[in-house]
Structures are given as structure tokens and as C-alpha cells.
Amino acid sequence: MLILAKSAMALMLGFILAIIVGLIFIPLMKKLNVGQQVSHSLEKHLKKEGTPTMGGFIFIIPTILSILFLWLYGSLEITSNIIIVLFVFLSYAFLGFIDDFLKVKYKNNKGLSRLLKLLIQTIIALVFFYIFIRNGGEPTIEITFLNLDINLGWIYGLFILFLLVGSSNAVNITDGLDGLAGGLSAIAFLAYGLIAWSTSWLAGYSEIAIFCFVLVGSLLGFLLFNTHKAKVFMGDTGSMALGATLAAIAILTRHEISLAVIGGVFVIETLSTLIQIIAIKRFHTRVFKKAPLHHHFEELGWEETDIVKLFWVVGLILAMLMITYG
Asked: What pLDDT does residue 67 have?
């Protein structure tokens, strides 16, 4: 019962604070004229030009404030593992913010160069790996259904980098329709919150679970402003932080492989983009009318809200299947 009470309190705290932050943040962004630049290849989305961006702060700030409050209140301990989660969350949020800031400043969609992004992400992965190993983390991948336990040694640092970069980019690619990435992220973090509660062998497992539930509440508050018609976009500030943090929690709870299922829609969206790029560059043809996949459905004539609801349902089913299996 205590677990349920803590989870409910964390979710409610994040939700309420996100609404308060959103009511302050959105008018401020409008006043500062911080608007999203929309690609002119997406004609249906041109009407969204100028919608306030960097909305990730609406769930980032409440999550950090909630964790700080719970720590000061004595309901949460700061362990090495929660430090890793918070470090990844804030580092990728800052990286995304710089990217968003440059796009707004120069009124284009370029942002940071890919090389500089990769360099910063490599540094974040190295810090993650250092804290992880220094505090007794095992550089192994467990594949339970194959009964495999693979020790990667120092290569595990590259594995961390791969998951952080891949997951952050996957959520970023999916963030193309109102409420899509936010809703799928809420489902994924809810699943990992439940998984974290069951990893009692992990130092600070309850803190990671509480973090997940706080973030779910904050995302639900954010969705009040982000669902169709969106009053704000999360931007790279939010999408990169969400994706990388999902990967970090998957690594710490030893559910790395599960991420491909729980975040299955993110994976499908990314694969559709890769397939389209390869098809165009290699075979000079298109597999999809537009990529990623949600834009393909738009070109088929689907309503934006129907696409989002379908993807949410698929994401929820995949998350429930993984939790059931686990």
C-alpha cells in the first residue's frame, strides 16, 4: 500500500506542478516570440508555424522540483543511480535547449551540428559509464529468454552511448504530431516505473520508480497543453531528455532489450525513416509517402488525432505485453 501511495503522490505532484508551469511558461514564450519553425515540405503543418516551442520545460522543471521537494521532505534518498538518471535527464535537456535556441535565433531547423551533438553525447555517456562502474555496476547485457549474460567490459560504454543516442533520436523523430511523443513517453515511463519497483536488488530502485511516476504526472500535465490543437511543442529540449532518460533507466534496471518493445512505436518510427532514406538514396524510390510513419498516415488522409490515438494504443499494448512477460 505504501508503494501505491508514494506512486500516486509522485504522479499527482508532477501533474499539478506541470499545469502551474505551463500556465506561466506558454504566455512567456509567446511574449518572447519563441516559435517553432515548420518544414515547408509539410503543407498540413504550416498553420502550426510560430507555436511556442521548448515546451519540454513544462515537464522538466516540475520533475526536478518534485524530486528536490521529496528529498528535502525525507521521502527520497539521493543514490548514485538516481544521480545518473538526473544527470542524463538534465544533460540531454540542456543539449536539446541549445539546439532549440539556435533554431529560434536563426529561424531555421539546423540547430547544432551533428558532430558537435555526438561529441557532447559521448561525454555524457562517458560520465554515465564512470559513475555506473565506480558504484559497482556490471558491464553486462542479460538476455533472459536466451539465458545469456554477456560481459562487454569497456565496450559497455559504447553500448551506453548507442542506447542514449538511439533512444533520444527516436523520441525526437516521433515528435511530429500533437501529443504523440508526450503520450507515448508517459506510457513508457509508467511501464518503467512499475519495472523499477520490482528491481529491489538495485540500489535506489524506489527513487528511480518515484522519478518515473513524477515524470508521468508531469507529462500528463504537459499533454493538457500539447494535445491537438497544441498550444506548445516540447521541442528538442523535451524529446531528447525523454529518450535518453528512458535508455538510462532501461540500462540501470537491466531491461535494455525491453526498451525495444516498451518503446516499440519509437523504434518503428525510426526504422521507417531509415528505410525511406536508404530507399531514396540507394534505389531512387519511396517506400512510404512520407517519413516517419505518422506522416505516411497523414498522406493517406488520416486525421492527426486518429493517428495519435492509434499509436498511443499500440504503445500501451506493447508496454503491457513487456510488463506481463517481465
From this structure: 96
Asked if 248 and 84 count as a contact pair (C-beta separation under 8 A), the reply is yes
How many CB atoms are located within 10 Å of the residue 273 CB? Answer: 19
pLDDT at 152: 85
User: Can you tell me the distance from the alpha carbon of 162 to that of 166, in angstroms, rounded to the nearest whole number?
Assistant: 6
Residue 236, sorted as left (phi over 0), alpha (psi -120 to 50) or beta, turns out to be alpha
pLDDT the model gives residue 218: 98
Specify the pLDDT at position 43. Answer: 65
Maximum distance among all Cα pairs of the chain, rounded to whole angstroms: 60
pLDDT of residue 41: 60
Please identify every stretch of the chain with a pLDDT value under 50, giving residue numbers as ranges.
1
Q: Is residue 308 within 8 Å of 179, Cβ to Cβ?
A: yes
Q: Is 32 exposed, middle or buried (0-12, 13-18, 19+ CB in 10 A)?
A: exposed
pTM: 0.95
- Sign (positive or negative) of CA dihedral 96, 98, 102, 105: positive
